[in-house]
């Protein structure tokens, strides 16, 4: 039996296996160990493409349907709903299963192993304040894992997995805050770590607190998009009838990765043409219509995500939108990103405070803070986290690989390693 650790993420996915030499993430997308959690269906019914190939096919204008941020539907009513794919309708649950199945097959091809056991990563909370939603989300992931061929399935919290990765470099016993700011959720654990503790089979007593919040990188994308791109498409403008704004729901769907495809459902285009006729600025609504007609919602979301990532290193970035309208572009300033998403950073910091209280610790008891997940690279998010434990040593983990590596360590502990 070969076992793996699987980090099925909102934005990216990793899978790892362990040998006597230790855990290793498998190359799933060419030479890359990360594969974007994206799947692209063509109308002809051929097998879907995934990862970078899926995004490339979509951006290149291939006829079909791109779906991304699939993990976001777990714990929501959308998981069992069907969406239009080609000439038929497919449930989101089935779409996730196809992506996970392809990921598993690629790992088996790359390693030459038959992988039948998995430690699946999961956020502390799939849904805020909804234990029943959490239970259903985990049950859905377990059923999907069984469906695609895993015979032995277990789960580990993603921040605990990141802690196991970090613990490999810890020389003395310490208390660490693990902060994993992923694409869909932010998760935190406070854990006792150390060389002697690595050998323990049961680490339950070492976990002092776990907490999380449904705030992640896609939420930063949403707020940035609403504040910058959507006004260019008519968001916030008025209708001819005095005091009546253009309906905002279209824009919020367009700015939300998991909701973009709603705009391609039957009847939406007719509604948009009616809005254009009654809008004070029909030329702005025409841009929105063009995006929807061209199924360009994910392309716009990709542009916004790229701008957000660039703003981690640059003070401003130009976003070219000539594919919507000739000459259309916008300059996005880092200050705009911070202003629009400061509330998200504050919510992340507040949840860390809750985690400290649950552990019965003050901030000065934390020896180190281990950071993983793409949004930890945003300066104001980084500062918000460190502001909760100002005296702690800061350790930057593998942005996209720490959770997967930790899950792989956990899989070896639970199921054994592959013989070298």
UniProtKB/TrEMBL annotation:
InterPro entries: ATPase_NBD, Hsp_70_fam, YegD-like. GO terms for molecular function: ATP binding; ATP-dependent protein folding chaperone. Keywords: ATP-binding, Nucleotide-binding. The keyword Flavoprotein does not apply. It holds the Pfam family HSP70. It comes from the Bacteria. CDD domains: ASKHA_NBD_HSP70_YegD-like (cd10231). Signal peptide: none annotated. The keyword Ion transport does not apply. PANTHER family: HEAT SHOCK PROTEIN 70KDA. This is Hsp70 family protein. The lineage of its organism: Bacteria, Pseudomonadati, Pseudomonadota, Alphaproteobacteria, Hyphomicrobiales.
């Amino acid at each position: 039996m070969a076992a793996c650790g699987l980090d099925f993420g909102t934005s990216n996915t990793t899978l790892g296996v362990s040998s006597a030499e230790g855990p290793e993430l498998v190359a799933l997308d060419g030479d890359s160990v990360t594969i974007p959690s994206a799947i692209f269906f063509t109308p002809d019914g051929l097998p879907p493409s995934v990862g970078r190939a899926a995004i490339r096919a979509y951006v290149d204008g291939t006829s079909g349907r791109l779906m991304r941020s699939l993990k976001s539907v777990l714990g929501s009513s959308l998981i069992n709903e069907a969406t239009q794919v080609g000439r038929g309708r497919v449930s989101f649950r089935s779409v996730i299963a196809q992506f996970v199945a392809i990921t598993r097959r690629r790992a088996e091809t790359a390693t030459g192993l038959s992988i039948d056991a998995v430690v699946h990563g999961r956020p502390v909370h799939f849904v805020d304040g909804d234990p029943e939603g959490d239970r259903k989300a985990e049950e859905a992931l377990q059923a999907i894992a069984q469906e695609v061929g895993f015979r032995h399935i277990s789960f580990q919290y993603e921040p605990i997995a990141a802690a196991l990765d970090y613990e490999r470099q810890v020389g003395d016993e310490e208390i660490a805050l693990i902060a994993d700011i992923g694409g869909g959720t932010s998760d935190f654990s406070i854990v006792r770590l150390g060389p002697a503790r690595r050998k323990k089979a049961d680490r339950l007593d070492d976990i002092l607190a776990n907490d999380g919040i449904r705030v992640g990188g896609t939420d930063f994308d949403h707020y940035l998009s609403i504040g910058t791109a959507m006004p260019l498409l008519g968001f916030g403008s008025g209708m001819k009838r005095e005091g009546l704004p253009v309906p905002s729901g279209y824009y919020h769907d367009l700015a939300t990765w998991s909701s973009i495809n709603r705009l391609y459902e039957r009847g939406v285009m007719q509604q948009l043409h009616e809005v254009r006729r009654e809008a004070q600025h029909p030329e702005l609504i025409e841009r929105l219509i063009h995006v929807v007609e061209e199924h360009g919602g994910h392309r716009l979301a990709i542009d916004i995500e790229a701008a957000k990532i660039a703003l981690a290193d640059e003070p401003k970035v130009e976003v070219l939108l000539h594919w919507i309208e000739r000459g259309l572009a916008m300059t996005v300033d880092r200050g705009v990103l911070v202003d629009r998403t400061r509330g998200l950073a504050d919510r992340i910091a507040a949840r860390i405070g809750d985690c400290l209280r649950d552990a019965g610790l003050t901030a000065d008891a934390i020896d180190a803070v281990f950071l993983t997940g793409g949004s930890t690279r945003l300066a104001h998010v980084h500062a918000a986290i460190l502001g909760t434990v100002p005296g702690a040593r800061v350790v930057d983990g593998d942005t996209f690989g720490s959770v997967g590596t930790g899950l792989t360590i956990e899989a070896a502990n639970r199921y054994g390693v592959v013989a070298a």
